[in-house]
Amino acid sequence: MTNGLSGPRKQFLDVLRVLATCAVVLMHVLTGATDVTDASIMPEYRSLLLSVMDLVTWCVPIFLLISGYLFLNPERTLTYPVMIKKYCRRIALAILLFGVPYAASELVVAERTFRIRMIPEALKMTLTGHTWSHMWYLYLILFLYLITPLLKKVLRVLPVWGVAAVMAVIFLGSSVAPFLNKVLDVNSIPVLPDGGVYFLYYLCGYLFAVREVCVDKAESSGTSGKGMEAGLDTEPVRGKRIGNVWLMAAAVLMMGMILSRTLAGFSIQMAYNYPFTVLLAVLLFAAGWNGRRDGAASTAREKTHRIPWQEAGALSFAVYLVHPVYVNLLYKFVKITPFTVLEQCGVQSVAAGQVVLILLLAAFCLVVLALATATAWVLRKIPVLRKYVL
Questions:
Q1: Given Cys at both, which of 20, 37, 102, 117 links 59, Cβ 3.0 to 4.6 Å?
Q2: What is the Cα–Cα distance from 47 to 367, expressed in whole angstroms?
Q3: Could you give phi then psi for residue 335, rounded to 5 degrees?
Q4: Contact 257, 51 (CB under 8 A)
Q5: Torsions phi, psi for 386 (to 5 deg)
Q6: Nearby residues of 120 by Cβ (< 8 Å), 6 or more positions away
Q7: What backbone phi and psi angles, to 5 degrees, belong to 245?
């Protein structure tokens, strides 16, 4: 099995998928709780909640980076028939099979009854993008898939520096400029649509793929014999060291983001176009990408790895699709959230409350993640779903 490319499956992509999926679940556990909780009980925890959001918002950008890395690889040929029949069909089926029931459930809850006409109504809602909020990503990735063959033709004639220039413009217009407008409390700085940042992540994955192609070609045409053997022996170690540097840089950035919220009281909140989120996602992907050769050179060791990254990575898409079911069950039907439990704990100080809240968020995340993973595992046992959707 591969990650969508010819050659052996790349473990670092599965690691990133699994970690990003866990981050998505934690993000929705948090946002779902705040959506159904009286805001008056949360002011003293605002900095903590913003810090947690800063630490998980890189999840969707990582998914887009992975997609760009795989689909925009210059050595991969993707025609419209292949893209539509294989990849777009998969996303479209996922939107219908999951989006329609989710939309129908909203109608049932709103009217407290079920009507047969709710089915076509739910279908219409899904086709127009009015289903559960987490499904927005599927509409986005479907659009990116549809333009991928055309985009690949453009990238073949556009030099890498030209792509980098386009990305710089998007970053400045869709991320930095809106950030400065918020910080300075002005509207005078011209901005690009916020959605442009998703295209930026997709192109960023392309740059990693181009870099990898260049490195591989340099190695294949480089030294031979003893020198080549020496190069192959040291390359995994070198790649791992560089990956650790990027990982340390990401850790420093995370710490800075936390301190800006907790000590400096920085309260401006942005979505996936937050400049530091952009930087954090790229650093995390760079850490995984640079360490990829260590995994590729240790195939035997991977097979006995304690963590089954490949199996877990295969479940990630299904986990993404179903995890809000359990978030909604806990919050809207069982009526239990991390904040309701925190109130019942009767903590006497804000510091203690923050510690308890972190533990509660982690516990709720683990419960939802476990239930969603079990559901995903069962769904992937259905041959049709496994082959065409999940």
A1: 20
A2: 25
A3: 65, 40
A4: yes
A5: -60, -40
A6: none
A7: -65, -45
Which tokens sit at 333? 């039907």
- Name the one residue in this structure whose structure tokens are 């970690």: 19
Element spanning 123, H or E: helix 118-127
Q: How far, in Å, CA of 355 to CA of 24, rounded? A: 21
Question: For residue 228, is pLDDT > 80?
Answer: no
- In a 13 Å sphere around the CA of 349, the CA atoms on its Cβ side amount to 3
Domain ranges of the chain: 11-388
Interval 71-100: pLDDT, tens: 999 999 888 999 999 999 999 999 999 999
Phi-psi region of 115 (alpha: psi -120 to 50; beta: other; left: phi over 0): beta
- 343 within 8 A of 33, measured Cβ to Cβ: no
Residue 42, both tokens: 């949360």
pTM of the model: 0.90
pLDDT tens-digit readout, 289-298? 987 655 444 4
79 contacts: CB under 8 Å, gap ≥ 6: 149
Contacts of 348 (CB under 8 A, 6+ apart): none
> What H or E segment, with its residue span, contains residue 315?
helix 309-328
Measure the CA angle with vertex 200, ends 314 and 389; round to 5°.
25
Taking every pair of Cα atoms in the chain, the longest distance, rounded to a whole number of angstroms, is 75
* Count of CA atoms in the C-beta half-sphere (13 A) of 55: 19
Is the Cβ–Cβ distance between 25 and 365 less than 8 Å?
yes
Mean of the pLDDT values across residues 102-117? 90
Amino acid symbol at 168: A
Residues 6+ apart with CB under 8 A from 178: 191, 194, 270, 273
In the block, tokens 């960023």 appear at 204
> What is the C-alpha to C-alpha distance for residues 42 and 251, in angstroms, rounded to an integer?
27
Of the pLDDT bands very low, low, confident and very high (cuts 50, 70, 90), residue 41 is low
Which residues neighbour 320 within 8 Å (Cβ) at sequence distance 6 or greater? 21, 24, 134, 137
